[in-house]
Amino acid sequence: MMSVVEFRAKGAKGQRGKMGARLRTSRRAAGAGWLLVAALLGWTAIPAFAQDDDEPGPPVVVDEGDEAEGDEADSDADSDSDSDAEADTDADTDADADTDADADTDADTDADTDADTDSDSDSGTGTGTGTGSESDSGAESDSDDDLFPDADDVARGADDDLFPEDGDLGDLISEDEDVSMDEVVVTGTAEPERRARPTGGAVQSLDSELLDRFNYDNPDAVIQQVPGAYVRQEDGYGLRPNIGLRGVSSERSARVTLMEDGILFAPAPYAAPAAYFFPMMTRMSGVDAYLGSASIPYGPMTIGGAIDFRAREIPREPHGGLDLGLGSNVFGRIHAWGGASNDWGGLLAEGVYLRSDGFKHIVGAEPGNDATGFDRAELVLRGELHGALSSDVYHRLELRLGVTAERSHETYLGLSDADFRADPWQRYQATQLDQMEWWRTQIELRHLLEVGDGFELRTAAYRHDFDRSWFKVNGLTGGSAFDVLTHPVGSNAVLLGVLRGDQDSEGGGAGDLVLIGTNARVFGVMGLQTEGIGHFETGPLEHRIRLGARLHQDVVDRHHTEDQYGVYGGQLTRLTDETYTNLLAHSEALALSLHAAYSLELFDAVTVTPGVRGEIIWTSYDDRLVDRQSSELRASVLPGASIQWQIEEHLSVFAGVMRGFAPVTPGQAPTVAPEDSIDWEAGARFAHAESRTTAMVTGFVNDYSIYIQQCSVGEGCASTSVDAQANGGRPIVGGFDVRVSSTPAIGDVRIPLRASYTFTYSELREAILDSPDPQFLNGRPGDHLPYLPEHQIVAQAGLETQPFGVNVSASFVSEMWEGVGQGDDSLVPRTDALFLLDASLYVQIFREMRLYVQGENLTMTQVIAARRPYGARPNRPFQIQGGVQLSL
After folding, report:
1. What is the pLDDT of residues 496-538, one digit of tens each?
2. Nearest-CA neighbor of 235 among 840, 868, 881?
3. For 878, phi and psi rounded to 5 degrees?
4. Other CB atoms within 10 A of residue 106 CB
């Protein structure tokens, strides 16, 4: 378990590249080559150990979930088949109508209530109410948590495969009909029930129905529902989320592996993983968080885990939807989608536009310089070809294109505590010019090959480009903006007056000039990944083998500039003649990732799954201001294993251990080592279909031997220290999380109930004498880690019928340290405890139309959610919105 191979080689970097169009052009040309390779690989790779079935044809999985949940999940899928094509796709049901018909009688009242409402809900929100309900049926499926995708995983498009969005032939087979290609008839065979059993590890999933109940656009509000996940709010809208898992740092979600349908989406996952880009939650149909040993196939970050966001699938039948919403602060939402499939292919187009005038106001700003809102737009086009290559070989080839853009009037500058208490929605005059602009393009080519019932191969090539420019207040010439706002006494009080606009700058050596600059960055990512999964049996033993590889390259060019501004009469005046460049650098990473896992199931009761992940990473860094180059080559072997015992039909226990890992980013000192830990977990899960009840409890410990602190602008670091890393502290993090859900029904009335609780404890075991990150300065043994709540609770309840529904969600997050600290340490500030109450209401006017009203933060709570980067910042605001969802 502790075997480790790690080495480094240093060398000089070669010829420098150039910024701008030349860089982007060369990347796109290279990206085209990657896509060609992927297409050839997906079409020509034929597995040697595929098995023929007694009944020929590619496998069609039954949406069974856990063994206890199988009938219920199937009933959802087929009951929605006529009313919701997207639900059919998400559930990936098969042609076995008899099984579904039986289950439909008693397992799922969704068949009665959602048949008329799901298509409306799905089309409006993009999340799909009608998919086998998570909180109703247990398809939230905390038990989909092995190293291999089980039947339930694949069926609902949420397997813990590298490509969670792809189902199999079930997507193409409508009820009571076969698919024909070139006079070859393809029939479906049901997945054996025993293959639906998970093999250990913890996965927490949110399905489309749960997402649709509250229709959150804010990723913070969605992720907070996942036990074991933490969110540090920053802008109130979740434009740039800060997400952590099981105690890892939440800073800009940089220590969590983030994926959309199995492909990494961070701007530069190895070279600069901070998630300044995040896909729109509005078009997501599910979220899967892979924790503990379940995260072995995913990387590069594996200490906390991985999160996969599942997008809408291409519908089997012509189907579309429209969601139009309006709300407070001139909020607006337009979400439209439509698609169809036939025997040989399918298409899907989906677009989202969100906007708001913002909930803050800039004190004293002139008209035209007082904006605090945002505009975001995203368009995704998907097309696929699919069909049978022979009697037992099926394939699917998909091309996905996307473009996303944002303009937001956001700032890193917060408020002093006193000003926050007086008016938490104000912004200082110094921020009136602050604005973020970015755009992103994506192109992905995916291929699925299935041979018989024993083998599948998934391959993808991808290319993402991200260009961002953030013009914002970076600090003051005379002191740290964080110190000025957290300790506004003496000379700091004078500097605070300048930021407010109450006091004019003196200039000269007074140190009261405002530093405002553009942090411009250009990112390029491309990669090729493939994975094969084989399954066979020998007597009472069932074997599954999973092998995968990913070749990935990412590049980032940073060009950060700054100007000095004076404040006179409350207005900003630029004083510098020439813009000063404080960072001009090129970072690059090339990584080869390999993973393998073997699962052995004994007598349908005990499953043992050893696995291993390998990372070989080459990085290079070129600081063009000081003419400094460096390169590193590192390799790590990351073993792990899990075991599960199915005690009886409804109850199982599991345990796992793995080596956690987070890579070093380019340009670090030779002494900085990758983050390393041993992660332990153990738990139990319960699932009972008849009572529609699921429960899961998991205990976890992350024992760090090497810990990374990283400086970032978001932590208030100086521009000269941005992205600098250091080791130290050797913390240990432990805790447990509990989740319970049930949906009792009284006639046609469903009562969805769901609750989760997470307890987390952390402490340093070694002192930190020096750190580039101000949060860790002067850390002492026993200090707690920053931005890690000890207690987190989410409780939800609802009342749903066919024509009407209401749901309420309450959440509580305890206070968090904003730097390492313990006891009654008065020098380290803490956030306020936070309670939020949300609610949603819908009325089904007729089959194709639904009206809805939803409210967030109904208690109008405003507390200090964080003081990083610079000063106190509020939580997400009170907001009321209403709209109409149309099914087309």
Report:
1. 999 999 999 998 778 899 999 999 999 999 999 999 999 999 9
2. 868
3. -65, 135
4. 13
